[in-house]
């Protein structure tokens, strides 16, 4: 069974982006374990806004094009007629059911990129297994929260904690199923 792993960055006060979606505050001076993590997955799941932000940052090129990408969107019309190509499949159906089938398929682990709506859905469905969070030593004051509407308590076990010279701290937790 494949594991869904969230590898994500947040500010110290728990935001993954500014209110306008910008991530200009993220450190880009080091790899912070990204490449090793990236090689451990063969599929990427994310929401439409996160996918569009990735395209914007990649200059119109999908930065995870060498992986199978699944992009969730409630509004299929907002996708500009895109439904599927070799690297991206747009999913408008039941997120939980789709991800349950994906977890049961063969392959490497699956990277949950974001955003907070998809994270919330997968947490509520007990489908997320690992949280690898890079906390940047920044307080944004407001923005898009990492966790919203999770509605339940979850037990976590620390797998690793690493501090970097930049002040960034990376925490790796596994989530226990109840």
Description of the structure:
This protein is an alpha/beta fold. It has a domain at 1-21 and 75-146: Dihydrofolate Reductase, subunit A (3-Layer(aba) Sandwich), CATH 3.40.430.10. It is built from four helices and ten strands, in the order ββαβαββαβαββββ. An eight-stranded mixed sheet has the order 5-4-3-6-1-7-10-9. Strands 2-8 form a two-stranded antiparallel sheet. The chain starts with a strand and ends with a strand. The mean pLDDT is 87.
Which band does the percent of strand residues land in? Answer: 25-35%
Q: Give the number of DSSP strands.
A: 10
Mass-distribution shape: globular
Query: In which order are the strands of the major sheet placed?
Result: 5-4-3-6-1-7-10-9
Main β-sheet: number of strands, strand sense, barrel status?
8 strands, mixed
At CATH level 3, the topology of the domain at 1-21 and 75-146 is: Dihydrofolate Reductase, subunit A
Number of helices, where a helix is a run of at least 4 consecutive DSSP H or I residues: 4
Estimated radius of gyration: 16 Å
Under the CATH scheme, which architecture of the domain at 1-21 and 75-146 would be assigned? 3-Layer(aba) Sandwich
Give the averaged pLDDT, no decimals: 87
CATH superfamily of the domain at 1-21 and 75-146: Dihydrofolate Reductase, subunit A
> Which spans of ≥5 residues are poorly predicted at pLDDT below 50?
none
At the first level of CATH, what is the class of the domain at 1-21 and 75-146? Answer: Alpha Beta
Order of helices and strands: EEHEHEEHEHEEEE
């Amino acid at each position: 069974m494949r594991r869904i792993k969230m590898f994500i960055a947040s500010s110290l006060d728990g935001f993954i982006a500014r209110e306008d979606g910008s991530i200009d505050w993220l450190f880009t001076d080091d790899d912070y374990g990204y490449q090793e993590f990236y090689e451990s997955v063969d599929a990427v799941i994310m929401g439409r806004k996160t996918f569009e932000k990735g395209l914007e940052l990649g200059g119109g090129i999908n930065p995870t094009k060498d992986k199978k990408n699944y992009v969730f969107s409630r509004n299929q019309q907002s996708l500009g007629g895109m439904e599927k190509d070799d690297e991206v499949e747009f999913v408008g159906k039941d997120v939980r059911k789709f991800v349950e089938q994906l977890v049961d398929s063969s392959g490497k682990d699956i990277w949950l990129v974001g955003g907070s709506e998809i994270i919330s859905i997968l947490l509520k469905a007990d489908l997320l297994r690992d949280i690898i969070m890079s906390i940047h030593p920044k307080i944004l004051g407001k923005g898009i929260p990492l966790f919203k509407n999770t509605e339940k308590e979850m037990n976590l076990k620390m797998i690793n904690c690493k501090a970097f010279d930049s002040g960034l701290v990376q925490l790796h937790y596994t989530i226990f199923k109840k």
